[in-house]
UniProtKB/TrEMBL annotation:
Keywords: Membrane, Transmembrane, Transmembrane helix. The keyword Transmembrane helix applies. It holds the Pfam family TctB. It comes from Actinophytocola gossypii. Residues 20-155 form the DUF1468 domain. This is Tripartite tricarboxylate transporter TctB family protein. It comes from the Bacteria. The chain crosses the membrane at residues 12-33, 45-68, 89-116, 128-146.
Length: 161
């Protein structure tokens, strides 16, 4: 056993985790239903090869969040006020809207890297430069896998990526 006491979560965080888990479960059902409805092809890797496992993973993580929230709720402490939480949520909404609007203009890699960096910064990442580097690398890898290996074209933007 460790000598360090376990930190008890506050009720607000537990409820937020439960809500996010529920949203993930709904998204999982929608993704799985859409993946199953995709037409079959003669290709070795069909169009449902990625959405189906992603939907299953969404469901597993969502269910795990709900179970974790259920077990933590009874021991959760009082919620502390977070003065800038509303601004962070607003920032995330602005980042998502900007992503949707700029995706056709700037392409997948640039807009996804910017969304990753903005999200990480809003959620408290210590280094903006590191967030941009991780976002760029992750977006580039996803672009290469989907666009080049699988053949599902993603918006390439004026630079071709």
């Amino acid at each position: 056993m460790s000598d360090t006491p376990q930190e008890t979560p506050d009720r607000h965080s537990v409820l937020a985790s439960a809500g996010f888990g529920a949203v993930m479960l709904v998204a999982a059902v929608l993704v799985i239903v859409d993946a199953v409805r995709l037409p079959e092809t003669a290709e070795a890797v069909g169009p449902a090869a990625v959405p189906l496992p992603v939907g299953v993973l969404l469901g597993v993580v969502g269910a795990a969040l709900l179970v974790q929230a259920r077990t933590q709720f009874a021991t959760a402490g009082a919620s502390e006020a977070q003065p800038r939480a509303g601004l962070r949520v607003l920032g995330m909404v602005v980042a998502l809207v900007a992503f949707a609007l700029l995706l056709p203009l700037l392409g997948y890699v640039v807009t996804s890297a910017a969304l990753f960096a903005a999200s990480a910064t809003l959620l408290g990442a210590p280094s903006l430069l590191r967030s941009v580097a991780y976002g760029w690398a992750l977006a580039a890898i996803v672009f290469l896998v989907f666009d080049r290996l699988i053949g599902l074209s993603l918006p390439s933007g004026p630079w071709g990526f």
